[in-house]
Amino acid sequence: MDRTNRAAVLNETHDPTARSLVQSANDDAAFPIQNLPFGVFRENLGARSRIGIAIGNCVLDLSAIWRKGLLSDLADLVPAILAPNLHKLMERGQQDTSRIRHRLFKLLRDTNPAPRLVLDCLLPVNEVEMLLPCPIGNFTDFFTSIHHARRTGELARPGNPLFPNFKSLPVAYHGRASSVVVSGTPCIRPRGQLGAPEGQSRYQPSRRVDFELELGCFIHSGNRLGSPISMDAVEEFVFGVCLVNDWSARDIQRWESQPLGPFLAKSFMTSISPWVVTLEALAPFRIPPAQREPDDPPLAKELCADWHNATGGIDISFEVLLSTREMRSRAMEARPITRTAFREQYWSLFQMIVHHTSNGCNLQAGDLIASGTISGADPRESGCLLELTQGGQPSVELPTGEKRGYLEDGDCVTFEAICQRDGFRSIGLGSVTGRVAPRSGE
Amino acid sequence: MDRTNRAAVLNETHDPTARSLVQSANDDAAFPIQNLPFGVFRENLGARSRIGIAIGNCVLDLSAIWRKGLLSDLADLVPAILAPNLHKLMERGQQDTSRIRHRLFKLLRDTNPAPRLVLDCLLPVNEVEMLLPCPIGNFTDFFTSIHHARRTGELARPGNPLFPNFKSLPVAYHGRASSVVVSGTPCIRPRGQLGAPEGQSRYQPSRRVDFELELGCFIHSGNRLGSPISMDAVEEFVFGVCLVNDWSARDIQRWESQPLGPFLAKSFMTSISPWVVTLEALAPFRIPPAQREPDDPPLAKELCADWHNATGGIDISFEVLLSTREMRSRAMEARPITRTAFREQYWSLFQMIVHHTSNGCNLQAGDLIASGTISGADPRESGCLLELTQGGQPSVELPTGEKRGYLEDGDCVTFEAICQRDGFRSIGLGSVTGRVAPRSGE
């Protein structure tokens, strides 16, 4: 099989004319039959968690589909399909995920001669609880938007914003895996030491809670310790993508980060969207990676590949919405405060993974890799308040007349993302949302 | 129950006159009956892993002891005792670990009237394979030796070695959990980008591979997200300690670390010793924490406690041994190159844990927390080559006439640790060892 663009090759599941027997899917902006993202849900608090697929405004219950005998040609995948989360499926390879996708595409298409059997396995998405897709093994957070690096760097080091390594390698740090939570979990305002001017040694509630808009990627199968992943093979290691809000406490971060980087400024919580959109679903939206600038240092050959020059990028557009307690009390809709895109990211998801394993580090199924804040060239396309407000100036204006520098208690932040391309059906990543809350007693 | 020093209270298991029916334990420097550390072993490659206890030069097989009916009063702990690793036991509380310790102490003591039943459950430690104590959830690495901070800081910023936060909080970063391995695993020399002077964008084998001598701590039970652990409760969250070698590639580290800290410079591998010495076993060796210096900033009240003033420290002495290929070919013993101690660590294990959760971050059973490099006031007490050789000068002299700045292929690094105190039986942590090897093809 030709290695070139294998994961970017189009097939019948990308056919823009395909319609689903689930009517809501045919009008849905995020979850038409061309998407079919994987997630984990339960029907109520005591119920066992199960794997589902988003289709329109419904969840297709994979366990139920199996019990109906509709997956009999996938018998070897039963332990993964009936598992309480996606970890076993992530341990397998991309071919297996693709077999499930193709089978479900046939079942959910409006050409299915026995639609009743499938319709019986649907649950309204607003009647189930979505859970984390899998236990998060390791969480790695990159720093790959040159616009984010420049604007935040300019605040800290005017005139000298980019560190010398930025254009040579995708910078990253290890994040905290235990505090990755699913969309909807309240974000308890963290306490911490806020630095010398504010009293070095007292722990107090952070005054500079921020969001960071990021793209997350779940790892398929993994590599052995000591065996790096090459650009030639890297696509096989991408299970799929989700939205990530890497909540950050800027005052804690500034004081604690020398010399080892962010720690408690990030580890209080990281939120992800519940649906994982597979790399195969993203095939129509693969584009060339961002152009390097003329005076950039030479790119390491380990981070290059012919296929990558053609399809190393992924075209995903994002929107960040903010709603305050006051806005909700006046029944106002959440206000978009940023629109940006992944296409300008200086390093691609694939380069992040290859660099990550270049030292022999082993990635494992269920690991989460995030892109770092996604910001565009225009300051209005900034993926965090630190940039949008130039360090916390109360400059984000809301329809109530309220202004925001950083987040206040009650503020609800929502990210949404969509992939669009002429001649193809759009697909979405869904949303990740979270509301800032005071710690009880504060 | 009085909270003061609960975990530091002495009981019959610390009786220095107690002797074991396992003769080798009575002469053993590390594993007498007063120690009883937990580990995980298997008899051969295909065998199921089981929990064992180190006693002298043997492993006591807990599954076998259970089958003999000798743990019938611990029936509620069977799922933890028969588990393939220590995770289930770590999920329980300190009381349960203590019940097992007290039961085994009675069984292994030379006053046991039925020694045969116990002796049947012993295996020579050199005939089994030791494994990781549990799957590592999250790995957090601190930076808590002021001598290490000063000496490495002096190399990077002469005259201004300590960052302003060092004396206000225990600095840390998230480490990579997937590449934590058990003692004996070869350390494959990592490749990486080594920075501008050496060719910014080429990946090549690191020339500056170093060890870092650290103390590790496994977490008991854990806390909920948003609920910090207080100094009053923190001892209950310590399962036990082990040795950690946080292998580091100094050239990769220097180039990649801005602004987010070390990443690939550390994640290629971290080695730990196989035996976990419980906090209860360490009770005789609890001492006051290191003295703060007269001009230190005030300590946050959240990091203070009366009991901590008396027993917040742990007195553990360490030795680092180096053996080269040449030394082994001439049948020379490994050479001690550092002797140091944990007693001068600026922040205690307990303060590290309390600070770690101060923002609401949740710790989980099986998480590994490491102290950062342990270095004493004298430069000869340095816990890494970066310090010992002042940045890689070939100044460590070996009996073959070889000199070392950083580690060369074939070099074997071993850490050993022991706790000693007048009037008490010494106990050891065992050892962690690893040999640097080139990647195949290099």
Write the layout of secondary structure elements.
The structure is a homodimer of 442-residue chains.
Chain A: H1 23-27, E1 38-42, E2 50-55, E3 58-61, H2 62-67, H3 78-81, H4 87-91, H5 94-108, H6 115-119, E4 122-124, E5 129-131, E6 139-143, H7 146-156, E7 171-175, E8 180-182, E9 187-188, E10 191-193, E11 203-205, E12 209-210, E13 213-219, E14 238-245, E15 248-249, H8 250-256, H9 264-267, E16 270-272, E17 277-278, E18 286-287, H10 306-311, E19 313-314, E20 317-323, H11 325-329, E21 335-341, H12 349-357, E22 368-370, H13 385-388, E23 396-397, E24 403-404, E25 412-419, E26 427-437
Parallel strand pairs in A: 6-22, 8-16, 9-26
Antiparallel strand pairs in A: 1-2, 1-5, 2-3, 3-4, 6-7, 10-11, 12-15, 13-14, 13-22, 14-16, 14-17, 18-19, 20-21, 20-25, 23-24, 25-26
Walkthrough of the structure:
The structure is a homodimer of 442-residue chains. The first copy, chain A, is an alpha+beta fold. The first copy, chain A, contains 13 helices and 26 strands. The longest helix of chain A has 15 residues, at 94-108. At the A-B interface, strand 7, strand 10, helix 8 and helix 9 of A face strand 7, strand 10, helix 8 and helix 9 of B.
